[in-house]
């Protein structure tokens, strides 16, 4: 019996080593095209990926898109063309630690740094003195809240915000319900480095599927695109560090919710009500009570946490109706 366990152990060690060194999946033609059509800029020695499309002739308006966790700017691909038909420029970035951007480790990932990266991108593009419309989702909502705080307090280098549209983000810590894996990883315990290394496509897809509606699940190809974005530059190994944003939301709640309560720019929220992370009606009741000045678009009952992917036409129409209202 003892010798049998030794043999299993000797066999298991090389198999585990192979598993831990499985290369990231090959990019699909669509994701490869997204990467090659984009660009990179350098922020404090770190490479940040972004897209910048010139769109509608005769329009001078700019929209900047801020994606969610754990995905990337590719989340906006289904509404990209529609946005270019309305805006002069459509800009999106992969936050540090996401998508095709650098994923340094060890590194203290923070919402404050991500907001500074957005400011740096607009300086890089020569748009620091231009008013921009912010459209955000999930993690990007919190980055947008920090940008709004800096704008309100006239901070040097601030983004000049023309309007803000949020979507399905945990802007209130008290109504935010992280997934099980997020709970396990967000506190950086001893299991975090083990779990991030053992994460694979199967576990990722199972975990992400729960935040999509039952009738709006991503295809397997779309799941692989999301996973490929995470695995690029070993992004799975920094997920626990990035997840500190959940704790940052609690710590800085007054700063970030306060930025919204006295907002002086048009404010809108697009909501997929089947979202288990920000559940209905708990979330929306608090939102309307706290931010009565904001307008709201609630999509169909079956739309969940990724409304721009689950109902791209409904999401786009809701956003354009908001933009055309002022």
TrEMBL record:
Cross-referenced Gene3D superfamilies: alpha/beta hydrolase (3.40.50.1820)
GO MF annotations in UniProt: monoacylglycerol lipase activity
UniProt key word Glycoprotein: no
Subcellular location(s) per record: Endoplasmic reticulum membrane
Signal peptide: 1-20
GO BP, sorted A to Z: acylglycerol catabolic process; regulation of lipid storage; response to retinoic acid
A GO term from the CC aspect: endoplasmic reticulum membrane
Keywords: Endoplasmic reticulum, Hydrolase, Membrane, Signal, Transmembrane, Transmembrane helix
UniProt keyword annotation of Transmembrane present: yes
Domain AB hydrolase-1 per the UniProt entry, residue ranges: 62-312
Pfam families referenced in this protein's UniProt entry, alphabetically: Abhydrolase_1 (PF00561)
Membrane topology designation: Multi-pass membrane protein
InterPro entries: AB_hydrolase_1 (IPR000073), AB_hydrolase_fold (IPR029058), AB_hydrolase_sf (IPR050266), Epox_hydrolase-like (IPR000639)
Predominant location category: endoplasmic reticulum
Family: Belongs to the AB hydrolase superfamily.
Name of the protein this chain belongs to: Mesoderm specific transcript
Organism taxonomic ancestry: Eukaryota, Metazoa, Chordata, Craniata, Vertebrata
UniProt gene name: MEST
């Amino acid at each position: 019996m003892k010798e049998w366990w030794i043999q299993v152990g000797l066999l298991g060690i090389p198999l585990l080593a192979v598993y831990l060194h499985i290369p990231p999946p090959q990019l699909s033609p669509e994701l490869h095209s997204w990467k090659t059509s984009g660009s990179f800029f350098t922020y404090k020695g770190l490479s940040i990926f972004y897209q910048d499309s010139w769109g509608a002739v005769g329009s001078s308006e700019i929209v900047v898109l801020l994606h969610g966790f754990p995905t990337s700017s590719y989340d906006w691909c289904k509404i990209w063309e529609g946005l270019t038909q309305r805006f002069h420029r459509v800009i999106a970035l992969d936050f540090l630690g996401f998508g095709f951007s650098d994923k340094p480790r060890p590194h203290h990932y923070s919402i404050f740094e991500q907001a500074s990266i957005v400011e740096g991108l607009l300086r890089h593009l020569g748009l620091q003195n231009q008013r921009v419309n912010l459209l955000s989702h999930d993690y990007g909502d919190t980055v947008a809240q920090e940008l709004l705080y800096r704008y309100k307090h006239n901070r040097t280098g601030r983004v000049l915000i023309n309007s803000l549209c949020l979507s399905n983000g945990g802007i209130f810590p008290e109504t935010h319900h992280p997934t099980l894996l997020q709970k396990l990883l967000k506190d950086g315990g001893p299991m975090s480095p083990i779990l991030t290394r053992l994460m694979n496509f199967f576990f990722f897809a199972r975990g992400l599927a729960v935040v999509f509606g039952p009738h709006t699940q991503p295809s397997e190809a779309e799941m692989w695109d999301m996973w490929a974005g995470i695995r690029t530059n070993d992004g799975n190994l920094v997920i626990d560090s990035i997840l500190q944003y959940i704790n940052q939301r609690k710590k800085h709640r007054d700063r970030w919710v306060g930025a919204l309560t006295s907002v002086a720019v048009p404010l809108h929220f697009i909501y997929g009500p089947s979202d288990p992370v920000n559940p209905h009606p708990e979330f929306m009741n608090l939102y309307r009570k706290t931010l009565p000045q904001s307008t709201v678009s609630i999509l169909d009952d079956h739309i969940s946490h990724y409304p721009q992917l689950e109902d791209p036409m409904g999401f786009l129409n809701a956003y354009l109706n908001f933009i055309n209202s002022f």
